């Protein structure tokens, strides 16, 4: 019988902070793309990317609450 690994949460705060940083970077990259290619992208693509960034911002809010719980 295989034993379950112990629940090691010692690096949770660090992992959450990395997720926050990566998500912020993704938002910035999307904004840069939208700015650089404003004349080339369709309205639908713009809408989809802006919607994705909205979801990312909400995710960051959740990550930040979780981060505070882990500190």
UniProtKB/TrEMBL annotation:
Residue ranges, annotated region (Disordered): 1-26, 41-71
Protein's name according to its UniProt entry: Small acid-soluble spore protein Tlp
Xref: HAMAP family: Tlp (MF_01506)
Biased composition (Acidic residues): 62-71
Protein species of origin: Paenibacillus mangrovi
Basic and acidic residues biased stretches: 1-14, 41-52
InterPro entries with a match to the protein in the record: SASP_thioredoxin-like
């Amino acid at each position: 019988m295989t034993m379950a690994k112990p629940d090691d949460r010692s690096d949770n705060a660090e992992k959450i902070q990395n997720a926050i940083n990566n998500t912020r970077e993704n938002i910035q990259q999307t904004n840069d793309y939208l700015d650089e290619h404003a004349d080339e992208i369709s309205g639908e693509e713009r809408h989809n990317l802006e919607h994705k960034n909205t979801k990312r911002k909400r995710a960051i809010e959740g990550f930040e609450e979780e981060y505070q719980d882990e500190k």
